[in-house]
Amino acid sequence: MAEETREVRGRLPKDLKIAFEIACARLELTQTAALEEAIRDWLKKKDSPPGGESQGS
Hints:
Layout: H1 14-26, H2 31-47
């Protein structure tokens, strides 16, 4: 069974959008996959305690 998905929208500066499209093409990666990776990384970063220490240490 396929994972349920939802759409995310936002606005970016034109140069950032173009750079993103080029990077995805060079890496042969869909923009959806790249955005998912970026959001997961951002969430991990924001969930980390200051100083880079892992939780539960």
